[in-house]
Amino acid sequence: MIVKALNSFTKQGEVLYLDPVRALVFRLRGRVPIGQRAYPRWSGTLEFWLVRCKDCGTAYTDYPHSWDGFTQCPNCKGKS
């Protein structure tokens, strides 16, 4: 499955390929881990997730924030 998603860190679109198992998990749960990433000036890597916003339906990539691990939609600022 190919998914077009908005990267919440860079604010740019990206295209992700999900294998059949991850595609099923994404369809059922609305979120799936996509791997470790690091960006310039980061001291290490973080686990990024592909998430579908519950409010506006936008697919986006983000890393869990805070102790409760929420992600924030870059389109509508809704928390998932």
Describe this structure in words.
The radius of gyration is 12 Å and the shape is globular. It has one helix at 20-29, and strands at residues 2-7, 13-17, 31-37, 46-52, 59-62. The protein is mainly beta and 80 residues long. The longest helix is centred in the first third of the chain and has 10 residues, at 20-29. 12% of the residues lie in helices and 36% in strands.
- How confident overall, as mean pLDDT? 90
- Tell me the distance between the termini: 22 Å
The H-and-E topology, N to C, reads as EEHEEE
Question: What is the radius of gyration?
Answer: 12 Å
| Spatial strand sequence of the major β-sheet | 2-1-5-4-3
Q: Please estimate the helix content.
A: 10-25%
- Percent strand equals 35-45%
- Class computed from helices, strands and strand pairing: mainly beta
* Uncertain stretches of 5 or more adjacent residues: none
Largest sheet: 5 strands, mixed
Question: How many beta-strand segments?
Answer: 5
Net shape: globular
The number of helices is 1
How would the blueprint of this fold be written?
Elements: E1 2-7, E2 13-17, H1 20-29, E3 31-37, E4 46-52, E5 59-62
Parallel strand pairs: 1-5
Antiparallel strand pairs: 1-2, 3-4, 4-5
